[in-house]
Amino acid sequence: MYAACCGHFHAGEAAPDAESLMRSRYSAYVRGLEIYLNDTWHPATRPATLGLDATPRPQWLGLAVKSHVPLDEHHATVEFVARYKLNGRAFKLHEVSHFEQVDGRWLYVDGEVRE
Q: In terms of CB atoms within 10 Å, which end of the chain has fewer, N or C?
């Protein structure tokens, strides 16, 4: 499943669209692939560090993509809900993420968290 979904993107293949990039970034969070997350984050908004090795680490439980909206040839949004547990408590992250295609590669720009 991993190889068919995201492994080839983590190995360097460019995601064909923003939704594929979103899914591969989620699985990169699950697997702790900080280099991939940095490489697929737009340089204008990329944080200095992600803190993926902070304790306690979230236990990622699942991703539901609610929509993928291409805005034009180089911009798109993806709305998703990611579920996780932290210290035994369940949480969800509901976000509308913005993506831009730069030099043929989709990059995460930023997101709006929804309640």
A: C
pTM (predicted TM-score): 0.94
Tokens of 43: 């340089």
Q: Please check whether residue 80 is in contact with residue 65, taking contact to mean a CB–CB distance below 8 angstroms.
A: yes
H helices present in 5-113, as ranges: 8-10, 18-31, 34-39
Question: Does residue 4 contact residue 20 with C-beta atoms inside 8 Å?
Answer: no
Q: Is 54 helix (H, G, I), strand (E, B) or coil?
A: coil
| pLDDT tens digits for range 31-69 | 999 999 999 999 999 999 998 888 899 999 999 999 999
For the record, the structure tokens of 26 come out as 């989620």
Tokens linked to 65: 């993509």
